[in-house]
Write a structure and sequence with these properties.
The protein has four helices and four strands. By secondary structure, the protein is α+β, with helices and mostly antiparallel strands. The termini are far apart.
Length: 117
């Protein structure tokens, strides 16, 4: 039983977005907001710049709703990014949700980013 629980935890870690790929520094985020290129697809805005390593940040506007709704939107964006990670290689990018978004919408926006960039 204990081995089974440990294996489940390892499986979850395998599907996470690694910390080294997360954009966390306030300085980097502010730099992207001021100097980054923007691409808008529906209610999602991509702010990006070319970089040697790939990093991503996820932001949900207060227009989305309360904290629980914003956190859900960020989880959806992280998962959509993780599943389509190869599209964003060589970019530092911020995903900015302007309103509530579902997983299917997020994936479609990512595909349009790939086509329009």
């Amino acid at each position: 039983m204990v081995n089974r629980v440990l294996n489940l935890k390892e499986d979850k870690k395998e599907h996470r977005l690694p910390k080294c790929e997360r954009l966390k520094s306030k300085r980097e985020i502010n730099y992207l907001f001021t100097h980054g290129k923007r691409f808008r697809s529906g209610c999602l805005v991509f702010i990006y710049l070319p970089a040697s390593d790939t990093r991503a940040g996820f932001i949900a506007s207060r227009k989305v709703g309360g904290a629980a709704k914003r956190n859900r939107v960020k989880r959806i964006l992280r998962e959509a990014y993780r599943m389509n990670r190869t599209i964003f290689e060589g970019l530092r990018i911020i995903f900015l949700a302007r309103r509530k978004i579902e997983f299917k919408e997020a994936v479609e926006a990512i595909k349009s980013f790939e086509a329009g960039r």
